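Catalogue entry: protein

Sequence with per-residue C-alpha cells
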Amino acid sequence: MHCAKTIREFLPHMMTRNHGHIVTVSSMAGIAGTEYLVEYSASKHAVVGLTVSLRLELNDMGKTGIKLTTVCPYFVATQMTQQFRPVERFDTKMQTPEDVAMAAVTGIRRNEYLVIIPGIMALTPIIQSTVPKKGQQLIKDFLGIGIAPLEDTHRKDE
C-alpha cells in the first residue's frame, strides 16, 4: 500500500511540528464494498482502516494538529471504470475527475475527516451501521446501486 509508505516518509516531520494534513484517496468501495471489484474494494478498505487507526493513534499521542482527510468517491469516469456500467434505478451520473478534485479540495479546506462524493452517498455508512444486513440488501436492490461488467463473465456460453 503506497499511501502507507508516503505517510511514513512525511509523518515524522509533521509530528515534530504537530502540524500537517494527510490526505488519502479511497473509494466508496472502501466503505461498502463493490461486486466485481473484490480486490479493489479490499485495498480501499485498507486505506480507510489505515486512516482511522492513524487518527486514533495521533489523538492518543496528543498530536491533534495533524489533520487527516480520506476522499471516497463513488464511480469516477476513468479508464478503470470503462469496463463497467453503473447499475442504478435513479440516474446518478458518473463523477468526473474534476468533480472529485473540486469536492476533495473543499473537504480538505474544511478539515473534513471523510469526503464522500457525491454527498448523497454519505448515507451509506449510516445505513451500514443502523440497518440489518437483509435491510441493507433490500435498499441496495430497490435503489439498484452497483456495477455490472460490460460483458457478462459469469454467464455460461451457450
Remarks:
- The mean pLDDT is 85.
- The radius of gyration is 18 Å.
- Strands lie at 20-25, 66-73, 84-86, 114-117, 147-149.
